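Example record

One chain of 305 residues, shown exactly as stored in the release files.
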Amino acid sequence: MTATSAPYPIGTPGVPWGDAERALWLSRQVRHRSYIEDVVRRVERLGERFDVAEYGQLSYPPDQYRLYAVRSRDWRDDLPVVLVTGGVHGYETSGVHGALQFLEERAADYAGRINLLVAPCVSPWAYERIHRWNANAIDPNRSFRENSPAEESAALMRLIAPLRGRFLVHVDLHETTDTDETEFRPALAARDGKTSEPDIIPDGFYLVDDTENPQPEFQRAIIEAVSKVTHIAPADEKGQIIGSDVVSPGVIHYAMRKLGLCAGITGARYTTTTEVYPDSPRATPEQCNAAQVTAACAAIDFALR
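Predicted structure tokens for this chain:
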């Protein structure tokens, strides 16, 4: 879809937000769903087969959130480590539910072959409010850097720090939605005192590879597997997807570490960010979740060949 330009309802065009604008924005955020019921209850049930650990807490008064990671019970120091992350952007639903579904249905297939670490919902406040940012109007997926301003990002970096150098694969599960154009990009422009130019949301699944560590065969293997589950996003008339050149069907490049993206935190040989399009008339929520599961499995399968 293509969005139309309109002034964002908070702030003065061209002027970055101050405390008053951020407070007004926060006052308008509404809880739509439950992290406890949707995520924590499923994680607790996974404790029957995996080790479940709390790796941090978030405090956004009056709300408190415990952050959970799930890891292989048969952890072995001689095995490579695979990280799967979901819900870095809380509104990207299939990232969270795809990570949980992967744990419930497929993770056991890799027992004894990898050490698996999964953080299924990195941003629970945003998950509940179906939002991109945290309660401080900060995007966690631009904040994976030293002295991060986002506690969600800092907590995940602390979790993986002891394992750096051992990661083989990191799959970060995301979505690109129509609300990226109708809400989140206009809000970003308003927050930063910039203008928002309408763009086209790609209809279909695509991947983001790392400019500094491109792995084209790895990305192609994931695209091939996911294409059997849901459709792959085509390039636009400029040969791009969301402003980046398409380097192979359904694949673009971002500079992961420079941009502070989650997929850049591990130093893994194989990294990717998935992008599912849940608003497509050609995709159901079940397909979106399945695409995330398929991507994670295809990534691990390729790396283990």
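Notes: The chain has nine helices and ten strands.
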